[in-house]
Amino acid sequence: MDRRKFISKTTLAAMASAFGTDLVFGANLPKGLLPLGLTDQDPFSLFKKDKDMILLNEKPYNMEALAHQLDDEVTPNPYIFVRNNGLVPQDIDVNKWTLTIDGESVSAPKTYTLAELKSKFKSYTYQLTLECGGNGRAEFDPPAQGNQWAVGAVYCAKWTGVRLKDVLNDVGIKSNAVYIGYHAADEHLSRDPAKEAISRGVPISKAMQEETLLAFQMNGEDVPLIHGYPLRLVAGGWPASASGKWVQKISVRDRVHDGEKMGGDSYKVPCSPVAPGQKVQEEDMCIIESMPVKSLITYPKSGAMLSNGKKLTIRGHAWAGEYEVTKMEYSIDFGSTWNTCPIRKPVNRLAWQHFSAEVSFPQPGYYEVWARATDSRGVSQPMLVPGWNPKGYLNNACHRIAVKIT
Ligand SMILES: Nc1nc2c(c(=O)[nH]1)N[C@H]1C(S)=C(S)[C@@H](COP(=O)(O)O)O[C@H]1N2
Ligand SMILES: [Mo]
After folding, report:
1. How far is CA 197 from the centre of its chain?
2. CATH number at residue 367
3. How many domains does the chain have?
């Protein structure tokens, strides 16, 4: 039997490039067994991440950025947070990768190779903000279980791919379609093949938006493995859990998609406010759709020092899910008074927007700069943690940095 069936040439080549040398008997490596040199490798170099990122979990890999690392208008890979629910697929053969569209609401299922997707449909590039629904969870009290994200589970990369709507129209969808759900190649942590790590989706109206992509490139290169190589669904402005990595199948559903992490209290918040710590029945929980208005001061780093009389340049990004940010303010007196500052238009819908300001301080001392964005509906960020919810989602409190004037 051909031992190469155990492990693909592409994987061997990827491993060789990670080692910086040939994996001499690599073809003999049983499938699923990682060379020690890879398991021992720290995830920062393995995924080409900046060493200062925060590693929250190794099984599965979860890491986030610090606010000042997110200063670029288009987030480069070293600062892009990683959120995995299962095991990163190991043995990807890009030449054999296919995408199948099926489900109750397609006329007939259809399968495309990657090459077919690329040649048959027009490609588009958009900058799209992806934020984990649990970003900011660490601030909730009583605390919520799950990764204790601070502020860095958000990024805005440039995605290139085909429109999901073009593919769905090519397949032909029935008028009773209400939702799409993705199915991906990552294994459940238990390695039980009957279980999926995650299988979420979006209503058909979001699936049909121009910016909803099946992306094969991120920032002008192949999507990095850890972010969904070779094909990723990207639905900007919604909890990033809706943007399936390693997508192999999209089911067009005649009901709300019921895949892994669509049920229970996953990615849901109470439909109406509850008291902190209160138990909420499943039927009183609503699926998160657009992410709320939020902003981040990415320069300077918290703890900046400045001599008296000098002005401090601050800058950062603001975003508001499906909406646009129309007003940006900052405060140096713990939110008692606010100054407006310019906010730039997004380069395209669903991309984060940039602000900057020259801040003056009245006298030497300790200050905090707080930033507050308001969206086109007039909704602003809360100064402190917003309404408590059982899973600690949607914390869009004002971001704060400390500044000392000497
Ligand atoms: N197949 C698959 N897609 C996935 C996930 C996953 O574990 N598996 N995690 C989701 C969640 S919860 C988030 S927040 C984003 C994280 O995307 P990133 O790793 O590119 O930052 O991917 C989403 N898509
Ligand atoms: Mo997430």
Report:
1. 16
2. 2.60.40.650
3. 3
Q: Does any ligand 1 atom lie closer than 6 A to the CB of residue 197?
A: yes
Statement to judge: residues 273 and 363 lie in one domain: no
Assess whether 148 and 195 both reside in one domain. yes
Which protein residue's CA is at the shortest distance from atom 20 of ligand 1?
A: 227
The tens digit of pLDDT for each residue in 126-140 reads 999 999 999 999 999
| Tokens linked to 306 | 């400045």
272 and 311 part of one domain:
no
Are 258 and 128 members of one domain? yes
pLDDT in tens, 254-291: 999 999 999 999 999 999 999 999 999 999 999 999 99
pLDDT value of residue 202: 98
Tokens 């190589």 belong to residue:
229
Q: Which residues make up the environment of ion ligand 2, defined by Cβ < 5 Å?
A: 83, 132, 241
> Residue 331's domain spans which residues?
294-405
Nearest CA to ligand 1 atom 24: 244
CA torsion sign for 230, 233, 236, 237 is negative
Spacing of C-alpha 82 from chain mean position:
8
130 Cα–ligand 2 center, Å: 9
Atom of ligand 1 nearest to the CA of 86: 7
